[in-house]
Amino acid sequence: MHIRDWPSCERPREKLLARGAGVLSDAELLAIFLGSGLQGRDAVQTSRELLAAHGPLRTLLDREPGDLARLPGLGPARACQLAAALELGNRHLAAALERGDALTDPVTAGRYFARRLRSYPHEVFAALFLDTRHRALAFEELFHGTIDGAEVHPREVVRRALAHNAAAVIVGHNHPSGCADPSAADRAVTARLKQALALVEVRLLDHFVVGDGEPVSLAARGLV
């Protein structure tokens, strides 16, 4: 059965318009980009096969556009569309920071760190430096590590905060394993950073751990 023959409430486009993109499965979202499937299969079935063979979704979309273009059901045009959509998402999340709006929403901050760090195959520790009104001054990747750790030097974070004349800092790092649960080392470095920054009157607002799914806020867990 072709997608056009499905009940209207189950078609991906109609479902998105009626209920929002959040209710769609990964395969349904991907199917909207494909538009049509491989011979004998509809777009949703083709998307499911792509995810089964080359997924999950994060793994699939972390591929370079040239790699995507070689996958069955995609090709250069669709690969470019996917890459462009991802970049639009990145720029949308960064828009408030670039406008100089006050960063008052921790969800936005967490998702910004996720967009910047999630695709790395090794741990990366980064900091977002803010002024007295919590407007972004700069985002910097400060420490690069291995697949299971990155050594963090609080003195360097303090030095960069002073260089930007920052009043507050949000830090974050990724867990390439995909598990975003903060480790004992994550909790310890958060405490050390908070103490070091307090000596120069800079507030540590949050520490995000990025894995699969939503990033974990240590401030929300009472650890900052």
Would you give an account of this structure?
By secondary structure, this protein is α+β, with helices and mostly antiparallel strands. The protein is built from nine helices and five strands; from the N terminus they run H-H-H-H-H-H-H-E-E-H-E-H-E-E. It has helices at 12-19, 26-34, 43-54, 57-61, 65-69, 75-99, 106-117, 154-163, 184-198, and strands at 124-130, 136-144, 168-174, 203-210, 216-217. The protein has a five-stranded mixed beta sheet with strand order 2-1-3-4-5, with helices on both faces. Helix 9 links the parallel strand 3 (168-174) and strand 4. Helix 2 crosses helix 3 (43-54) and helix 8 (154-163) crosses helix 9 (184-198). It is elongated, with a radius of gyration of 20 Å. The model has no long low-confidence stretch (mean pLDDT 87).
Separation of the first and last Cα atoms:
54 Å
| Mean of pLDDT | 87
CA-based shape: elongated
Oligomer: single chain
Helicity range: 40-55%
Strand arrangement within the widest β-sheet reads 2-1-3-4-5
Task: Chart the SSEs and their pairings.
Blueprint: H1 12-19, H2 26-34, H3 43-54, H4 57-61, H5 65-69, H6 75-99, H7 106-117, E1 124-130, E2 136-144, H8 154-163, E3 168-174, H9 184-198, E4 203-210, E5 216-217
Parallel strand pairs: 3-4
Antiparallel strand pairs: 1-2, 1-3, 4-5
Question: Which descriptors apply to this entry?
Answer:
224 residues; alpha+beta; five-stranded mixed β-sheet; 5 strands
Quick structural overview:
With 224 residues, the protein is α+β, with helices and mostly antiparallel strands. 45% of the residues lie in helices and 15% in strands.
